[in-house]
Amino acid sequence: MIRQLFASAAVIGALSTSAFAAGDAEKGERVFRKCQACHQVGDNAKNRVGPVLNDIIGRTAGTVEGFNYSDALKQAGEDGIVWSDEHLHEYLEDPRGYIPGNRMSFAGLRKEDERDDVIAFLEQYSDPDAVAADHADQEDSSNADE
Ligand code: HEC
């Protein structure tokens, strides 16, 4: 019985991270203040302490031109990490744990809804086709989990 409870909790957990984010971009703009010390988005965005986050969805990790990434983040890109809602969730929850050795000095966003919201905010600065394809992929993979 207890086992079953754990098992269904795990399923619910998996569904809520893979079901595509119903984030609120307006709230995400406020969450993004935590990122702004290091990152810019929008028309005149420039690389600062961290790389520009325009077009993040569908971008291979570690590939903004002119930004001096850590070896760890470049390696993550070479290993095939392409930023998606799902990868962003994992990275933003625990940047150091997800890509050990990367240089983003940020503790992470513990709350899932904060991550959903900031990702929804960032999606506005990405190619809408890439965002739609990412959401479609997630629907496929959440069906596959069932
Ligand atoms: C203290 C500065 C700092 C803060 C705060 C910060 N970042 Fe970063 N971020 C970085 C740095 C530096 C890198 C590059 C890390 C590397 O090369 O290892 C990075 C990398 C990234 C990447 C990977 C980009 C790529 O091109 O592969 C994403 C996505 C990202 N940050 C999102 C965020 C978001 C969203 C927030 C806020 C919730 C945030 N960061 C907060 C400094 C920061």
From TrEMBL:
Residue ranges of domain Cytochrome c in the record: 23-126
PROSITE patterns: CYTC (PS51007)
Statement: the UniProt record of this protein carries the keyword Transport: yes
Signal peptide from the UniProt entry: 1-21
This protein's UniProt keywords: Electron transport, Heme, Iron, Metal-binding, Signal, Transport
InterPro entries: Cyt_c-like_dom, Cyt_c-like_dom_sf, Cyt_c_1A/1B
Pfam family, one: Cytochrom_C
GO MF annotation list: electron transfer activity; heme binding; metal ion binding
PANTHER family: CYTOCHROME C (PTHR11961)
Official protein name in the record: Cytochrome c family protein
